[in-house]
Design a protein that fits this description.
Layout lengths: L2 H10 L9 H7 L4 H26 L3 H6 L10 H9 L2 H32 L5 H11 L8 H15 L7 H24 L5 H8 L4 H12 L1 H17 L2 H6 L7 H12 L7 H21 L1 H9 L5
Helix pairs in contact: 3-15, 5-15, 6-9, 6-12, 6-14, 7-9, 9-12, 10-11, 12-16, 14-15
Length: about 300
């Protein structure tokens, strides 16, 4: 067969199993389309049904919610107006945003430099530090509540520095857990960056600090945002440490919700509608954060998966 005949045959009979083609997708698909659609629909129902119920309960009266009514007899936004005074949500949300936001920014900023040193430099104790970062993730936070509380209480006794009950003390507490995790995330991400870029920069006379700020940092934004968001969630969702390390004026939103729910359980009519409204308001910043940084999250979480 001549070269021209082979080319014409390839044109008339294209390869159907080329990567990404529709034919290959249909061949390698494990389940039929209708079954996949059914599975996705069931999963969406399981995820969205509780959210729909919480929203409907938040615009319903407390009596109707306590009676078990799913659909509100009368739609009202009174619960969203009451939570700012009954729950004290304004100050609690401010404390949560400050504590979780500062934890995310500080841990992301420190982890990029720490991870760069651990990945690109060889020194004694490097493997021990990496193993320690990984081992710290297996320690339950409940085991460290008492040691952390005693340590910070001792700072007021021996150093004259008040840590318990302050915002910066809560931030320092969260950093003890967020920083090792953020550093490990950045170590995994930086291992996927090519060394040739740094070598070319060193040939041009760039210093280590210049390489870190001008080459590594711009290329590492997906990993930095992923580590920052996980650190933010650690501080935002925490109840255990925030209930021990804060005062009424510095308590976070999670603690305020817990106190409000506990205080209304013994009443004649629990304020279920207000609790649902407060839960949605507290969840809104996290949802907005995910939507805003969605493309960075996908890039950061999948980095290093394909070599």
């Amino acid at each position: 067969m001549s070269l021209s005949q082979a080319a014409s045959k390839a044109t008339l009979n294209p390869i159907v199993d080329r990567p990404g083609s529709r034919q290959q997708t249909e061949v390698t698909r494990l389940l039929p389309t209708w079954i996949l659609g059914l599975v996705v629909t069931v999963l969406c129902v399981f995820v969205l049904a509780p959210l729909v119920y919480i929203f409907l309960a938040s615009i319903n009266s407390d009596i109707s919610v306590a009676r078990g009514d799913f659909w509100p007899a009368e739609f009202t936004l009174a619960n969203y107006a009451k939570i700012w005074s009954s729950v004290g949500l304004a100050s609690a949300l401010t404390n949560s945003i400050i504590a979780a936001g500062a934890t995310a920014v500080i841990s992301a900023a420190l982890s990029i430099g720490t991870a760069y040193v651990l990945v690109r430099y060889q020194f004694r104790g490097r493997l021990t530090i990496l193993r320690g970062l990984l081992g710290l993730q297996s320690v339950p936070g409940t085991l460290l509540v008492l040691p952390v509380f005693v340590l910070f209480s001792s700072a007021a006794t021996y150093l004259g520095i008040t840590v318990i009950g302050t915002r910066w003390g809560l931030i320092l507490t969260y950093l003890t857990f967020a920083l090792p995790f953020s550093t490990w995330v950045m170590v995994t991400y930086l291992r996927g960056l090519p060394k040739e870029l740094e070598e070319a920069a060193r040939i041009d006379g760039a210093s280590s600090l210049g390489i870190l700020t001008k080459i590594i940092l711009p290329l590492s934004w997906p990993g930095i945002i992923v580590s920052g968001i996980f650190a933010f969630l650690l501080g935002w969702n925490d109840v255990l440490f925030a209930s021990v390390m804060t005062r009424p004026d510095t308590q976070t939103a999670a603690v305020a919700l817990q106190i409000f729910a506990t205080g209304t359980e013994g009443g004649a009519i629990p304020f279920y509608g207000q609790m649902m409204a407060a839960s949605l308001v507290c969840a809104a910043p996290v949802v907005i954060l995910y939507l805003f940084f969605q493309k960075y999250l996908v890039g950061g979480l999948t980095a290093g998966g394909v070599k």
